[in-house]
Structure formats: C-alpha cells, structure tokens
Amino acid sequence: MDQKINTGLMMLTSLQTFLWMGGYALYVWFAFAMAFLVLSLNLVWSLRQQRKMKHAIRYWLQENDDYAPPS
Amino acid sequence: MPKMDKLLVFLHKLGSPKSFYAWSGRALPWFVIIGGILFAYGLFAGLVLAPPDYQQGDALRIIYVHVPAAFMSLFIYSMIATCALIHLVWRVKLMDVMMQVSAPIGAWMTFLALFTGAIWGKPMWGIWWIWDARLTSELILLFLYLGLIALRQAIIEPQQASRAVAMLALIGFVNIPIIHYSVYWWNTLHQGATIAKFAQPSIANDMLYPLLAMMMAFFCYFIGLMMMRARSEVLWRERRTRWIRKLIRD
How much is the pTM? Predict the structure, then answer.
C-alpha cells in the first residue's frame, strides 16, 4: 500500500518537474505550442485545399464539356 | 553522349506533370511515416531524455523547434531559387508549381523561426527583439517570401507571373549567405552555429541526436506538404488534359 502511494507520488512530482522545465515552462511550452499550431494548421489547410481543388476541377469539367474528347 | 541523353530523358519524364502525379502519390506515405517516427523520437528525446543546458537550463529545449524551423526557412528558399533557375533556363513546368506551393510553407517556417527565437530571446537576452544581424536578415527573408507570394498574385498572365517570381527568387537569394554568415561577420547577440557541415558540432550527443531528428522531421514534413500541394496544383493546371479527365471521372 505504502509502496503504491510512493510510486504514484513520485510519478506526480516527476511530471511536475517535467512540466516546470526548470522555471522556463512558459517559454518552452509556448514555443512548442506555436510550432505545433503552425505545422498542424498548414496540414489542415492543405488537406482542405486538396479536397476543394478536386471539386473545382470536377465542376470545371462539367462546365466545359466541349473539351471532352470524343468517345 | 547517349548516356547523357538518357539521363535528360529520364529527368524530363520525372518532371512531367503526369508522371510527377504518379510517383509523388507513391512517395508521399513514406514521408508521412518516416516524418512521424522522427517527430515522435525527436520530441521525446528533446523534451525528456536530453539534459538541461549548463548555462541556459531547460530553456535550451526551444532549440528543438527553433533551429529546424530556421534551417527549413533557408532550405526552402534555396530550393525555390534552384527551381527558379531551372525554370528560367529549361522551362520545366513542374518547377513553377514547386515555387508556387513552397513559398507559403517557407514563409510559415520563417515566421516560426522568428517567433520561437523571440520566445527564446526573452529569458536569455532579456528582450524579445533586437536589430541584430541574424534577426534582421531573417526578417528580410520573411519579406522576400511574402514578396514571392504577392508578386505572383499581382500579375494576371501566369507565364509572366512565373518568370517575374523566378527573377525575384534569384535576386533574393543574395540574402541566404548573408543570413548564414551573419553570426560570423557581425559579432552581435545571436549565438554562433551549433552544427556546421564540416566541423565537430559544438553540442553533446544527447542534445545533438534529437536536434538532428527534429530537423529531418521538419524536412519530411515540408517535402510531404509540398508534394501534397503540388499534386493538387498540377491537377488544376493540367485540367484540360485527357489523363486528368480520366482520373477525376474514375
């Protein structure tokens, strides 16, 4: 029982030390959050743009049927 | 000579929109997988395993996003300048697509490098921003990227736009060596290089490996994203062709 509490407590304190970042928590996590935000936003935008583009081409092909090669 | 011809034919085929669309589709998942693994390792090793710096403490960990972003900002611009040269000399269609889709990603990387640099500068130097040579030249790089994007949108005729953008990209390339050597030429606040190509890195292995992993992860991220955007731009530009029609209909 005692053993269990101790390991739990130890894990909690080590997590706290980790998050505390030697007093630089605000700076370190701010920088990493910003990096995550920029990279993920760019990914989401690109995925959305890719989907939109396919719709746009499909629409364009329908509008410009005279471009259709004879079948 | 025949060997040379074969190589040129091969490169030309590789750069044709249709075959680019095919091979990039096969290559893309690999960049996602390898990039994902490198991000996972780099983040864990950088944030948990690497020891705090003896001078900067845990604030040094900002290096694991700052340096990769700064490195990519220079790499992407160099790539754009190379594409510009090839585009102007050999008129390879794909090069213009690469220039167009890479510019915004490069701008974001430059922004990220400046932003994380400011966050790092506050606890280390006591200020968010200073008109230091490195910082100023990197800011100019951001304006160059924005210039590339704006110039393309400002010219209506695509052929003219692509040539103007290529010229600007080549002229702006002067800034790249200036950024790189700024920490040597002007001895100001920004610290010197951590990793130089032909020298022993001035950093312990525990910190070096996560840094290299993060740099390669950013690289994979860029290549993957660029391919994705280039593929959809190629679809649009080639929409009049038969193979696109077939691809979209199926």
Answer: 0.89
